[in-house]
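REQUEST ID: PR-0412
SUBMITTED BY: lab tech R.K.
PRIORITY: routine
TASK: structure prediction, single protein chain
INPUT:
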Amino acid sequence: MSRSSLAAALSALVPGGGQLFTGHYPRGLLVMAGALLLGALYAGAAAAYPPGPLPAQPAGPPAAVGACFGAAFLALWAWNVYDAYSLGRAADAA
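STATUS: complete
OUTPUT:
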């Protein structure tokens, strides 16, 4: 398995793992911290508001806040996998 594939797989499992694997420690730690922060904000937003008419269906503006945190987390995760693959590819070429 190439370094790029392994870095992408690690980042898919643990945000920032691929960056740490390729030796980009500050970037990997920032990705980990960002993922933890966004995950905590999403969980806090989901827990702070009562469900809507259906079970586990949040309602109103607070639901939009939680959805924004969730979308930001998914965007960070997707970028994280792409970035780890790119860093691994550069390491493969070197």
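NOTES: DSSP finds four helices and no strands in the chain.
REVIEWED BY: pending
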